[in-house]
Amino acid sequence: MNTSSVRLPLLAAALLSAAALPANAQDAAMGNMAMTNPSAMKWVDAPPGLPKGAKLAVLQGDPSKEGPYVVRLKAPGGYKVPPHWHSQTENLTVISGTLYLGAGDTMDMGAAHALKAGGYHYLPGGAHHYAFTKSTTVVQIHGTGPLDIKYVDPKDDPTAKQ
């Protein structure tokens, strides 16, 4: 099996400084706690390892480095992520919309499971899967980095097309 590996370069320093400063209460009593309302999230284009069209907000940590992270991904209707896998375990919660998920090396849209707002998905590292949306969907992903994406078919890797 050929795989293509892409580490998700998230422009960590720029994103974290842009997202964290105005979004987190800087009050001394808060210590290291963070509170972020949706209006304070800084959405940027998703990293080049993902198909174009999605937006990403880093809520905590740096997904490109070792350690815990929390991100939100906003995908438009018709967005597709071809079969791929991640080295690390991923936890995903649908915030709004519906995310369609399937397992395996082939994108079979008819076999995908619809995960609706409030739904949760646990994905162990190494599990081959694919995802798509039919309408705008926001998901929150958390885990321990670094977060990477390895496409089952190297031709699906968006960075190989640049």
Automatic annotation (TrEMBL):
Keywords from the named record: Signal
Describe the location of the ChrR-like cupin domain by residue ranges.
Answer: 33-147
Q: Which CDD domains match?
A: cupin_DRT102
Q: Where is the signal peptide?
A: 1-25
Superkingdom, taxonomy of origin: Bacteria
Q: Which SUPFAM superfamilies match?
A: RmlC-like cupins
Under InterPro entries, the record lists: ChrR-like_cupin_dom (IPR025979), RmlC-like_jellyroll (IPR014710), RmlC_Cupin_sf (IPR011051)
* Protein's name according to its UniProt entry: ChrR-like cupin domain-containing protein
